[in-house]
Amino acid sequence: MPTRRISLITLFSLFKHLLLIYLSLTVWYLYGIENSCSSSSVHSESNVNQYISRIPGSSCLWSKYQMTMLNMNLFDKIPPEVKFVEMLPSKGQYRIERIIHQTWKIRDIPVNFWSCVESVRDFHKNWEYRFWTDNSARKLVRQKYSYIFPFYSNYNKGMFRVQAFRYMVLHEYGGVYIDMDMKSLLPLDPLLRKYTCILAQEPHEHAILEARSAGIASDSFLACRKGHIFMKTLIENLPSFFPLNMWYNAATGTYYLTHHYRNYVADNSFLEPSHDKWIYLAPPEYFIPGLDPFKFKTFRDKCSKSIRLSKLELWACASLGRNGFRRRPLASSFTEHMWSHTLEKGFNMTNVKDILSIVPWASL
Question: What is the value of pTM for the model shown?
Answer without folding.
Answer: 0.80
